[in-house]
Amino acid sequence: MSADWIFHSGRIFDGQQIHPTATAVAVKDGRITAVGTEAQVREAAGTAAETVDLAGRFLTPGFTDAHVHAVYGGVERRGCDLSEVSGLDAILARLDAYAASTEKNWITGGGWHKADFLNGYPTRDLLDAIVPDRPVYLINADHHSAWVNTRALELAGVDAATPNPADGWIERGPDGFPTGTLHEGAMDLVNRLLPPLTDEDLCGGLLEAQRYLHSVGVTGWQEAILGSYAGYPDASSAYRTLAGRGLLTGRATGALWVPRTTTADNIAELVADFEERRRANGAAGFVTTSAKIMVDGVPENRTAAMLDPYLRPCRCGTSDGTGHYAVPAQDADGEDNGLLYLPKEVLTDVATALDAAGFDLHLHVIGDRAVRDGLDAVEHARRSNPQTRGRHHMAHLQIIHPEDIARFAALDVTVNAQALWACNDDQMLQLTVPLIGEERAAWQYPFGSLLAAGATMAMGSDWPVSTPDPWQAIHVAVNRAYPAYPDAPPLLPEQAISLQTALSSYTARSAWLNRNDDGGAIAVGKAADLVVLNADPFRLDPAELHTVSTDFTMVAGAAVYTG
Q1: Phi, psi (degrees; rounded to nearest 5) at 375
Q2: CA 468, CA 484: separation in Å to the nearest integer?
Q3: Separation of alpha carbons 562 and 552, rounded Å
Q4: Structural contact between residues 8 and 41, judged by C-beta atoms closer than 8 angstroms
Q5: Share of the chain residues as helix, strand and coil, in percent rounded to the nearest 5
Q6: pLDDT at residue 83, as a whole number
Q7: Average pLDDT score over residue span 286-302
Q8: Which helix (H) or strand (E) holds 356?
């Protein structure tokens, strides 16, 4: 007997813990065939075609990103990519250089961050000074707002008389004319005019995303929106195409998007459509067993759904000093509580119907009202469909009312954490906390409390909202702080989790959430999805975890990244 690969002379994390004795692993035909000391593995596996001397480095299962927008990220990297620049001057310089480099009719891309602009909202005049004659549409990093120039607004016929859509709102000046930032559903007023992305665009974006994800140790992921959203079409075709050509090396799954236009009258039609798309995607080798429901928005633009109203802090520089030219969402009493994208009864009914059809629910929830309504919907689905055991999960979970912490374990709802956000950065300190106040700020990203109450945790990045590098998120999960903000205090340090828990969440638990029961572990018989790290993270000072990087990535026994 001989092996295809032998890794030796390092420490091994098996998906749950550091293996107490093993220093070597053998791989043959895409599977792990031996785990133990080097002598044990060589005796079991014999010779090897390829040998990797870990030389004291660390071997871990491949990372699974439980919430990512891979195609969006890849497409945006190939356009005007603002994700890796910060500061207004750098953003405008990147935009100027990109516009000069292309003759495209539309300037598109994205990745800008609200914290780089006064009050979080960029204006059209900044774009007009650089690109006055072509329309510009730049989606922001969290994909909940878009920055447009005057030409784009003109082409779309958007002016002072244009009403806010039901699921979004337009930033306006004192005269009511749009200032250049469109939130949530208001993005569709302009993005409906964008040149449609071709199959070539989508496949090229997915290939670039896959290359990038493998370079940071990600071997599997869940594409968090498959459907028409914010100017992007359903990317399922790109996955089917690459899978058919043998080019989809990552273990990708997907979540079919529940549109905000869903009503009680079309739920049966939606479920039937989802079932057919699940069948077609699965037949092509792309598993889509999840259904994505965006329950609310984000707090920075006041669209996260809150149990109590937002505060109205003074935002110097706006026309009236109150913070916004237009209030996005008000209830019947005029209170500003954010947005729920589906009425609660529709959310409950569609969640229950999708659960009955065998879909795992993937809920975007950020505000405490969204968390509670989402939990209520899952509770109703669990009670109505006792025969199903969907792997339901909630992503983001920024603000959770303390009374709802214990419900995650009780309802078997997995915490899908984007841990990189759980720190005091500029956006948190300047834009979020002034809107939610100190009491609710103390309810943010309560990972420690959720785990103490018995919840399980998976992890994801939400890339291109933030970097897909797992070690940046793990660093924050453990430290509740990020090195880019050395003067900021940790965000609720009592909610920190251990390195072991964070690493297990990003490997074994995320693989389980994606229904990849064959992955996320280093054990005999499991799929050989492996990552060699440049250092042993358990021997580093926790303040150095962000320095960990990937030297080598393997999927199904094949090297997909070699440094």
Answers
A1: -60, -40
A2: 17
A3: 5
A4: yes
A5: 35, 25, 40
A6: 84
A7: 95
A8: helix 344-356
**pLDDT per residue over 59-73, tens digit each?**
999 999 999 999 999
Residues 6+ apart with CB under 8 A from 275: 357
For residue 70, count other CB atoms closer than 10 A to its CB: 29
Residue 513, CA distances (Å) to 41, 221, 373, 549 in order: 31, 10, 22, 24
DSSP one-letter code for 262: -
How far is 50 from 431, CA to CA, in rounded Å?
52
Which secondary structure element, helix H or strand E, spans residue 281, and what is its range? Answer: helix 267-283
> Average pLDDT in the 49-65 region?
97
Query: Which tokens is 360 given?
Result: 């795992």
DSSP character at residue 175? T
Specify the pLDDT at position 64.
98
- Residue 285 gets the label, from left (phi > 0), alpha (psi -120 to 50) or beta, of left
In the chain, CATH 2.30.40.10 covers: 2-62+521-561
Per-residue pLDDT, 93: 96
Residue type at 305 in one-letter notation: A
31 vs 34: CA distance, rounded Å: 9
Q: Which CATH number applies to 70-191?
A: 3.10.310.70
Per-residue pLDDT for 313 more than 90? no
How many angstroms separate the CA atoms of 510 and 250, rounded? 14
DSSP string, 180-200: EEEEEGGGHHHHTTSPPPPHH
Residue of 44, 62, 38 whose CA lies nearest to 3: 44
User: CB of 440 within 8 A of CB of 368?
Assistant: yes
3-class secondary structure, 278: helix
Q: How confident is the model at residue 499 (pLDDT cuts 50, 70, 90)?
A: very high
| Structural contact between residues 213 and 58, judged by C-beta atoms closer than 8 angstroms | no
Can you spell out the DSSP letters for 392-450? -EEEE--B--GGGTTHHHHTT-EEEE-GGGSS--HIIIIIIHHHHHHHHHTTB--HHHH
Radius of gyration of the chain (CA): 23
| C-alpha–C-alpha distance, residues 105 and 133, integer Å | 9
- For residue 323, pLDDT over 60 is answered with no
Pick the CATH number of 2-62+521-561 from 2.30.40.10, 3.40.1440.10, 2.30.30.140, 1.10.760.10: 2.30.40.10
- Residue 289 confidence (pLDDT) above 60: yes
Specify the residue for token string 């109703």.
Answer: 380
Average pLDDT, the chain: 94
Cis amide prior to 446 (ω within 30 degrees): no
pLDDT of 327 over the 50 cut: no
- 145-148 and 178-184 strand pairing: antiparallel
Find out whether 7 and 34 touch, Cβ atoms under 8 Å.
no
Q: Kindly report the backbone phi and psi dihedral angles of residue 537, in degrees, each rounded to the nearest multiple of 5, phi listed first.
A: -65, -25
Cα–Cα distance between 116 and 96 in angstroms, integer?
17
Q: 174 exposed, middle or buried (CB, 10 Å; 0-12, 13-18, 19+)?
A: exposed
Helices (H) and strands (E) in the chain, counts: 18, 23
What is the arithmetic mean of pLDDT over 272-296? 97
CATH 3.10.310.70 residue spans of the chain: 70-191
